[in-house]
Amino acid sequence: MPEPRFTDIRHFDSIDSTNRYLLDEARAGAPGGVVAVADHQSAGRGRLGRRWEAPPGSNLLMSVLLRPDLPAEQRHLASAVVALAATEAVLTTQGLELGIKWPNDLQASDGRKVAGVLAEADLTGAEGSELPPVVVGIGINVNWPATDQDLPPELVGVATSLRQLVGRPVDRSALLDALLAALDPRVEALESAAGRACQAADLASRCTTVGTRVRVELSEGWFEGTATQVTAEGHLVVDAGGVARTVVAGDVIHIRPGS
Ligand code: BT5
User: Fold this and answer.
1) E strand residue ranges, 122-174
2) pLDDT digits (tens, 9 = 90+) for 86-97
3) Full-prediction pTM beyond 0.85?
4) Is residue 61 lining ligand 1, measured as CB closer than 6 Å?
5) Among the atoms of ligand 1, which is closest to the Cα of residue 159?
6) How do strand 221-230 and strand 60-66 relate by DSSP bridges?
7) Residue ranges of the alpha helices (H) in the chain?
8) Whose CA is closest to atom 27 on ligand 1?
9) What number does the ligand 1 atom closest to the CA of 138 have?
10) Residue 116 CB–ligand 1 contact under 6 Å
11) Right CATH for 213-254 from 2.40.30.170, 3.20.110.10, 2.40.37.10, 2.30.30.100
12) What is the pLDDT of residue 104?
């Protein structure tokens, strides 16, 4: 039996960012499988310099260090497996189905955001290395917001929590255990082509973006279309006026509902 991966779990009362911490650990040579969990982050980060909000002691804020043997074009699957493990953990512990809004949000059935995933790779010095480190962080709104009144105005109607959705406080540590248990076989699956195909298929089946009109905002402009599929690499295909455009997670600034 291979050893379970996620046994080195480092808890912090407060830290700037669990992603920052594990990126530094990765640079210092830490092995894949290290987990960082924080009660509070003073500089929790989202994609592209955005902030991740969570008051102390209320939500699940965690990162995992992975050294997946992944072809570069399939790297998005490393963050996808964390999003998939989180939806699985929410289903097993709360009986609640969440969707994945491509590329990295977990959302309730009304579209409000419950969790966000941030994957960061440190490619400096990784040249020639077969296993460049990837740190995948996830912030899950577990007990905050308890009501919409807790939210800053810009997140009202945008964010919700497991507590709001299930109507009672939710145990963060049971959710963490379930997430890591679900993640272990999924990370293992990244090692083979068949396993990666399975993870991509799971992502496609959970992805609530497919079939909807989207406005894709990239650094060099935007376009609108209908999302038609998630590819085996985890990319999103958008039909823009009869032209199929493949969108890569790392290139996207925002995916918004299209008109
Ligand atoms: C994300 O970014 O959704 C990725 C969030 C990853 C956070 C985790 S926590 C543990 C680990 N350590 C870190 O430092 N980060 C990771 P993005 O798609 O850019 O979404 C950020 C945007 O979501 C913000 O600009 C807000 O509009 C909104 N937002 C901020 N906090 C939120 C919350 N708690 N719930 C829902 N939306 C939020």
Assistant:
1) 134-140
2) 999 999 999 999
3) yes
4) yes
5) 36
6) unpaired
7) 18-27, 76-94, 162-166, 172-189, 193-206
8) 155
9) 8
10) yes
11) 2.30.30.100
12) 85
What distance in angstroms lies between residue 33's CA and the mean position of ligand 1's atoms? Answer: 22
Share of the chain above pLDDT 90, in %: 86
CA-18 nearest atom, ligand 1: 12
| pLDDT greater than 90 at residue 259 | no
At the top level of CATH, which class does the domain 9-206 belong to? alpha beta
Closest C-alpha residue for ligand 1 atom 34: 53
Q: Which candidate, 47, 66, 49, places its Cα nearest to that of 191?
A: 66
What angle, 0 to 180 degrees and rounded to 10, lies between the N-to-C axes of helices 76-94 and 172-189? Answer: 140
pLDDT range class, residue 127, cuts 50, 70, 90: low
Q: 103 CB under 6 A from ligand 1?
A: no
CA of 238 to the centre of ligand 1 (A): 24
The whole-angstrom separation of Cα 18 and Cα 60 is 11
Indicate the domain borders of the chain: 9-206, 213-254
Q: Residue 109 corresponds to which tokens in the numbers above?
A: 């059935």
pLDDT 10s digits, 30-85? 999 999 999 999 999 999 899 999 999 999 999 999 999 898 889 999 999 999 99
